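Pilot study result, target chain (251 residues):
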Amino acid sequence: MNISDNTMLITGATSGIGRALAEAFHARGNQVIITGRRQALLDEITTANPGMAGFRLDIHNDALLASLGAQIRSRFPELNVVIANAGISRAEDLVDDDWNADAADEVVRTNILGTLRTAAAFLPLIKRQPDATFMATSSALAFVPRADFPTYCASKAFLHSWLVSLRHQLRHIPVEVLELSPPYVQTELTGSAQIADPRAMPLAKYIARVMTLIEHHQHPNGEILLAGDKARRWAEKEGTFDTLFHAMNPD
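Predicted structure:
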């Protein structure tokens, strides 16, 4: 993936990692198109970043998705990068007698089906371009989960596996498939406390490292992963899974 001169679409880009990526790529001279469900935030971000385009999108709304596809074809036919970033996280207490699958259903619909619907809508467009990239935001928790976020972690493990298959199926087509696997970052993914949690990595620091990895093509096997997260990535292979799991999920 080139660091500049792309026309890119980023879903879930009105906050957190999505917004920070959009602004970082915009600053590098890319045509950035952002989507989100809140029009006020889209207006705020595009006003602060002249030249950036914003479209309201609920990935589960067929009419909005079809409308966006038509507008992209008309206004941005050179689209060559899609970043499926929209995602949510929900804690779940599976032991509670009142637990139900509502939160899990919401996570699966957004994190899994949202990514698949984004791919279905835009892969046919970017496959026509000579330097195309499809990226999805996974998580380092795909490899060693936080047990209090079971469906969230499982959804990211699904994306990891699905991206491996997508990468293989596209091996004869010039579309690079990347997996962005963030650590615990200061965003509001799990609530307002996370954005100020000193244990979390500052968002600006994380995005700066990601941009460096992309610029220098330092993402073996298509995985954009910080050095500090490689222990979790290879925990099963290295026989350290149980140790790491219990450190992350104490009794």
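One observation from the pilot: The CA atoms of residues 99 and 236 lie 30 Å apart. A full batch analysis is planned for the follow-on phase.
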